[in-house]
């Protein structure tokens, strides 16, 4: 089994790479900038006995996506699982401060990247093209449902697009033996909150959640691995909430 996890040098992506190694996958770690962090994750994966490569690629750029998948073909073999985790947000802002540059940046890195990676994975997994099937998990966010008013409406909208895309390609690819599902993490302790200008955001919000705590990247990773596994063999086009009870 071979898995690609985009944006896997930190946070949920890194935790998923480690969980995948434990589940028996050969792992491709993808990163855009932080080679040092990616190589640290690679070392942890290899310590678990899994074959692993770390490949730099900006998955919002089509030519880099194509090169990434060709590298996996050559070094790991047929792809059986894809986790679209790459993406991000900008600093907290209201509608009055959104610019076209910011909006397009968010959409490119959160949406275009997922579309392109799903396309390349489907080309390799589809039974009509000689593949053996496979599974894809897209990482959305509870923000797709809440809208993230006053903070990240552009990010929330990008994750809403991922949800809609999941529904469409899950139906389109089911006859090809490819399952497509989505996880919607809520307030998880990752560096993404620092990117938005509030490193302590989870601690500020956690008392408002039914479970009274933030989530761990490892909790999301375990859900992703389950959705990829044969234990979820009759599950496609689904959305798994990982938000501590917030809906």
Question: How many beta-strand elements?
Answer: 7
Low-confidence stretches: none
What's the overall geometry? globular
Total domain units: 1
H/E series, N to C? EHEHEHEHEHHEHHHE
What is the topology, as strand order, of the major beta sheet?
A: 3-2-1-4-5-6-7
Report the C-alpha radius of gyration, rounded: 17 Å
| Beginning-to-end CA distance, first to last residue | 34 Å
The biggest sheet, with number of strands, parallel, antiparallel or mixed sense and barrel status, is: 7 strands, parallel
CATH superfamily: NAD(P)-binding Rossmann-like Domain
**Approximately how much beta-strand content do the residues carry?**
5-15%
CATH class: Alpha Beta
Overall pLDDT metric: 93
- The count of helical stretches stands at 9
CATH domain topology: Rossmann fold
Helix content: 40-55%
CATH architectural name:
3-Layer(aba) Sandwich
Structural class: alpha/beta
Describe the structure in brief.
With 247 residues, the chain is α/β, with parallel strands linked by helices. The protein has nine helices and seven strands, in the order βαβαβαβαβααβαααβ.
Description:
This protein is an alpha/beta fold and 247 residues long. Helix content is 45%, strand content 15%. The chain has helices spanning 11-22, 35-47, 62-75, 100-125, 143-146, 153-173, 192-195, 201-205, 217-228, and strands at 2-5, 26-31, 52-56, 81-84, 134-139, 178-185, 239-242. It has a 7-stranded parallel sheet with strand order 3-2-1-4-5-6-7, with helices on both faces. Helix 1 (11-22) packs across helix 9 and helix 3 runs parallel beside helix 4. It starts with a strand and ends in a 5-residue tail after the last strand.
């Amino acid at each position: 089994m071979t898995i690609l996890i985009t944006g896997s040098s930190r946070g949920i992506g890194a935790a998923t790479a480690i969980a995948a190694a434990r589940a028996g996958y050969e792992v491709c770690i993808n990163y855009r900038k932080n080679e040092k962090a990616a190589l640290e994750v690679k070392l942890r994966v290899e310590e678990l006995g899994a074959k692993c490569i770390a490949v730099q690629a900006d998955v919002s750029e089509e030519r880099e996506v194509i090169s990434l998948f060709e590298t996996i073909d050559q070094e790991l073999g047929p792809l059986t699982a894809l986790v679209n985790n790459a993406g991000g947000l900008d600093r907290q802002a209201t509608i009055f401060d959104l610019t076209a540059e910011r909006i397009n940046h968010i959409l490119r890195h959160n949406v275009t990247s997922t579309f392109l990676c799903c396309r390349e994975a489907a080309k390799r997994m589809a039974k009509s093209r000689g593949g053996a099937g496979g599974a894809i998990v897209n990482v959305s966010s509870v923000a797709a449902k809440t809208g993230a008013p006053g903070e990240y409406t552009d990010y929330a909208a990008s994750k809403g697009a991922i949800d809609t895309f999941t529904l469409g390609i899950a139906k389109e690819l089911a006859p090809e033996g490819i399952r497509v599902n989505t996880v919607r993490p809520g307030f998880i302790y990752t560096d993404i909150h620092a990117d938005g200008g509030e490193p302590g955001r989870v601690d500020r919000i956690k008392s408002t959640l039914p479970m009274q705590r933030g989530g761990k990247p490892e909790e999301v990773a375990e859900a992703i691995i389950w959705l990829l596994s044969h234990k979820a063999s009759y599950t496609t086009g689904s959305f798994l909430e990982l938000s501590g009870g917030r809906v």
